[in-house]
Design goal:
This protein has helices spanning 18-30, 36-63, 89-120, 128-148, 156-168, 173-195, 201-244, 247-260, 264-280, 284-291, 302-311, 315-329, 332-347; strands at 4-9, 12-17, 68-73, 76-81. The chain is α+β, with helices and mostly antiparallel strands. The chain has 3 domains: 1-149, no CATH class; 150-244, no CATH class; 314-352. The protein is elongated and about 90 Å long.
């Protein structure tokens, strides 16, 4: 693993990957900065500009109760959220636009500084290299912010389009955003390639890569959408099966769903249904083994795990699972359930 620089800004953790610095140097060389001092200053400009952009996302997200973390990687930056991003499309829309807004703000400050110098010191002539660095700073902040607002995923403009479309509740926002991303990406890449093939080669390569990503994402989305429908059908049927104690129907439906599943989410839920069905059919040990076959990164629901463990005679393990769930959630109802279950198990002599 390559070394990373780690620090915090306004209590927001930041990681800087080595490739971010390497690519910044290469871009600076392509920008005709060749002496060490100019390249170092260019890298500093890119570092501050990209970090400022990501801080825009982070500050807006934190205002909505999220916990941000920033990573500066090879192709720019990424703001992620500890514990996920469970907010509505309206707030997601604002978070997406906050990054480019910070870029425009920083670029505006640079323009204001240049205007102030021209007014207060009209005879001052900036050295050629300093002027080139100032133009680079304006480009990194203003031109990149404009580019970043294009309605192309994974750019902020594409994310904003997806969130805005979700607000309209017309169709599938993910599908719409990816189709628009592919159309706009192909159009701009073609225009850039025709007008200046050599000068725009980097932009064309980036856009072609984005088009490929969105094509793949669109295929995955169609597969996921089919599984989501299947998942809803299983969840609707689950309480009916449970009420009728129909373990055989659970096993049949779960097995069929697991065979046709295209996403790990459906595989995981189908596996839980099979395990519960086996438990209802009096084969809790097989149910316990089935839960062990859950896809990597997935854990059984508390209800299913407790039922299967208890039926398999693993009373101590079931109690321990309930205790951990109660402690981690802080839910008084779970804590009450744990205390009641522990007392019943103690009276029955199942645990000490």
């Amino acid at each position: 693993m390559l070394p990373e620089l780690k620090f915090s800004v306004f209590r927001i953790p930041v990681r800087v990957q080595l490739w971010f610095l390497v690519l910044s140097v290469l871009i600076g060389t392509w920008w005709n900065f060749h002496d060490p001092a100019s390249i170092l200053l260019f890298v500093a400009i890119v570092f501050v500009s990209v970090l400022t952009h990501e801080l825009g996302h982070a500050f807006m997200g934190r205002a909505f109760g999220l916990k941000p973390a920033i990573a500066l990687h090879g192709l720019g930056g990424l703001t992620s959220w500890t514990g996920g991003r469970a907010i509505g499309p309206g707030r997601s829309f604002l978070i997406s636009l906050a990054g480019p807004a910070m870029g425009f703000f920083l670029g505006g400050l640079l323009l204001l500084a240049g205007f102030a110098i021209s007014v207060l010191a009209p005879s001052y002539h900036m050295p050629e290299q300093a002027h080139a660095l100032a133009m680079a700073a304006l480009s990194v902040n203003i031109v990149w912010s404009i580019f970043n607002l294009l309605p192309i995923l994974p750019l902020d403009g594409g994310n904003a389009l997806r969130s805005f479309w979700a607000l309209t509740k017309i169709g599938d926002a993910e599908v719409v955003a990816r189709i628009v991303s592919m159309i706009v990406g192909v159009a701009i890449a073609a225009l850039a390639g025709i007008t200046n093939p050599r000068g725009n080669l980097f932009i064309v390569v980036i856009l072609v890569m984005y088009v490929g990503q969105n094509y793949t994402g669109l295929r995955v989305r169609f597969a996921t959408r089919g599984d989501e429908l299947y998942l809803r059908q299983l969840r609707d049927a689950y309480p009916v099966w449970l009420g009728a104690q129909d373990g055989a129907a659970m096993i049949r439906a779960g097995t069929q769903a697991r065979v046709s599943a295209k996403t790990p989410q459906l595989v995981a839920y189908a596996t839980e249904i099979i395990a519960m069905g086996q438990c209802l059919e009096g084969d809790a040990r097989s149910g316990l083994a089935t839960l062990g076959a859950l896809p990597r990164g997935f854990a059984p629901s508390l209800e299913v795990a407790l039922r299967v463990l208890d039926a398999a005679g693993e009373h101590a393990a079931a109690l321990e699972l309930l205790r951990r769930a109660a402690e981690s959630s802080g839910d008084p109802e779970l804590q009450r359930r744990f205390e009641d279950a522990r007392e019943r198990a103690r009276i029955a002599g199942l645990v000490r």
